[in-house]
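Recall the central idea of this unit: under ordinary conditions, the amino acid sequence of a chain determines the structure it adopts. In this exercise we apply that idea directly, starting from the sequence alone.
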Amino acid sequence: MILIFGFIFFNIGFAQMPNLEIEPKNRTIDISVIKRVTQQYYLLTKESPIELSIVGPNWLRVYTRLLFPQAIEQKNAKYKIVVSEEEEERIVSLETEKSNSAIGPANQKFGKWRSFFIEVPAGTNKYKFSLWQAPSDTVAVRFSLEKPKEWQPISVGEAISSRRRIIIEEAGKTLDGYELTSDEPIKLELSGPLRLKVGVRLNYDLSGIGGIEGAQKFAIVVKENGKEMQKAQFRVNKSETAKYQNRPELIPSVERFFYLAIPEGKHQIIFELTETIAKSANLRFLSKSQEKYE
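Accordingly, the structure predicted from this sequence is:
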């Protein structure tokens, strides 16, 4: 009887919570409570490689954590893993720092996780993972069937989209790009952290005087608050497969890419076209959210 009464009392009290009046009306705060999660890793050493079989087509993501023994005082460290498949080998180089949350059962200190992907072809495939170089001679490894995140187009704002949108057609696909002229930069309002991928095409203008031909060099300068963040330089030729649906007077070059890491916070990023006699280029913007390493 006591248990039943207590249960009923608790539920009645909970149901009446929205009607409670708290005095005084102090400020409130939302607190996130993080619970510790245990994950199983395999220990990879120079003497003990790891072999596995997997059926494709598929994607394999390999998560790694470097063991930081007490003798290692530095906070950052590099390590290398060799991935072997039949007669092919590739070396994966990784760099990490000590994690404040990753702790082994004997209070061992591990690095923040770092990962890489393997695209697995059709059929049964065998892989061997060997530790080639590491300051502690031990790396913890776990495996997951995960695809890499795809790059997604970002919104550039109505002001840019309405005036500068260029529709690119290539290989049966249509993509949105935006015209960057030599006398008018593109300004983007971005919130970080995120990774930005910028597709770039130089525009060959053959509609009149000043038309350009042949291989061309140009640069895209990226600025914030008047300071240069990055300069990406390219050499391109006309594309034989792409065209602009809504700008037939322009002929696009082949596409090239560069990448930006946008830190946390709000940013106004400016893109400028330089080092070319061409009047304009075409940019398209894609993003990925940054990984959270713990």
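DSSP finds two helices and 17 strands in the chain.
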